[in-house]
Write a structure and sequence with these properties.
By secondary structure, the chain is an alpha+beta fold. 40% of the residues lie in helices and 15% in strands. It folds into 2 domains: 217 residues, Beta-lactamase (3-Layer(aba) Sandwich), CATH 3.40.710.10; 136 residues, DD-peptidase/beta-lactamase superfamily (Beta-lactamase), CATH 3.40.710. It catalyses: a beta-lactam + H2O = a substituted beta-amino acid.
Length: 372
């Protein structure tokens, strides 16, 4: 958390970081949106925590964003180099604001949320149990961050419940846990079916970690890449032109792309309780509150007394650029008001500290303007 730093100081920090990192993106700058659509389930839908109509007249922030918040978000977005998407939606309200809210951005590990949702929907339908056992062997290992891999290699195989896989995939962003969970619910098509059936909008789901990451790098997946740093060595051996072509193709049309506004709407619907049963909703929100990754992203911009549950996503690096640097989540003010906040970076020349400063500035702005 950034303590003792004003909202204007945060803006200045991000603008300064952007100037140091490089020129502002050449994308066309549009004026701040005066009105944006909200969740497709309707603004007044009851959910995980009910909304009392009698409270609405005394809460001017219910129907419209606090004065100044949209302008602040626009300033932050405009100053940051590279293609950036930001969306903020009041969960228990009627408004949403966004910059590049309708553009597709690579999700990377943000997409683990849709796997967990699909699994819990299957639990709600009686098709799966949280106590169902899933065996994970050497042939199921993936790449990059996979804490489970050490156990698999030492023990030969491990068995984990669906509950354990959800916990590891969300809180630790374990790629093998996620792909094992994905396999147990029917693969990518099951997740795509859930997204379509729930009408979540422009949210794509890719082929799973192994194929997504190898394709982004310009490689064809081999199971040997799951051992040690074999993948990184094979990637480094590729001609640079091949890597660049693969990365450019991915960024131009990400197979796991999603729009910030669609993600904010999905988070809003999750928080309202309109995607899963009350039990599964509470369970998943609790799991997301224990996410360990990205402690200096959106979470760090919120003042003391605020709560935040979230999922991060980070892609591969190429020439100082990261193919997807994201954080999405639900912030809860001390008075119980909730906001879905989404920040997604498609590509940027900014340093990692500058990226985190932008995210902190966005969540800090939501907190600063809350209640105005």
């Amino acid at each position: 958390m950034i303590s003792g730093v004003s909202g204007r100081s945060l803006v200045a920090m991000v603008i300064s970081a952007a100037v140091l990192a490089g020129c502002v993106s050449g994308a066309k700058i549009v004026p701040p949106a005066r009105k944006a659509p909200y969740g497709s389930d309707g603004a007044r839908m009851s959910g995980h925590r009910s909304m009392q109509t009698s409270q609405i007249p005394s809460d001017p922030g219910f129907r419209r964003p606090p004065p100044g918040l949209n302008d602040r978000i626009f300033q932050l977005w405009r100053a940051f180099p590279g293609r950036t998407g930001i969306a903020v939606q009041r969960v228990d309200g009627e408004w949403a604001i966004a910059q590049r809210g309708g553009d597709l951005f690579p999700q990377q590990s943000v997409s683990k949320l849709w796997v967990a949702l699909t699994a819990l929907d299957a639990v709600d339908q009686g098709q799966l149990s949280l106590d169902h056992d899933v065996r994970i062997g050497p042939g199921d290992l993936t790449l990059f961050h996979q804490p489970i891999a050490a156990r698999v290699r030492s023990e030969g195989s491990v068995t984990m419940t669906v509950r354990d896989l959800i916990e590891s995939a969300i809180t630790q962003s374990d790629n093998t846990a996620n792909d094992s969970l994905l396999r147990s619910i029917g693969g990518p098509d099951a997740v795509r079916s859930f997204i379509a059936r729930k009408d979540l909008g422009p949210i794509r789901f890719g082929p799973g970690e192994r194929l997504l990451q190898s394709g982004t790098a310009g490689l064809t997946w081999r199971q040997a890449y799951s051992v040690d740093r074999s993948f990184q060595r094979a990637r480094a051996a590729l001609p640079e032109a091949r890597r660049k072509a693969a990365m450019d193709a991915y960024l131009a049309n990400p197979v796991d792309g999603a729009t910030p506004s669609a993600i904010a709407s999905a988070l809003t619907r999750l928080a309202r309780g309109s995607l899963l049963s009350p039990e599964s909703t509470s369970y998943l929100l609790d799991v997301m509150s224990r996410t360990r990754s990205g402690p200096k992203r959106l979470k760090a911009g919120l003042p003391q007394g605020w709560k935040f549950l979230h999922k991060t996503g980070t892609g591969q690096n190429f020439r100082g650029m990261t193919a997807g640097y994201n954080d999405i989540g639900i912030a809860t003010a001390p008075d119980g008001t909730r906001y879905a906040i989404v920040v997604m970076l498609r590509d940027t020349t900014a340093t990692v500290p500058a990226r985190m400063a932008l995210m902190q500035a966005v969540s800090g702005a939501v907190a600063e303007f809350h209640g105005r």
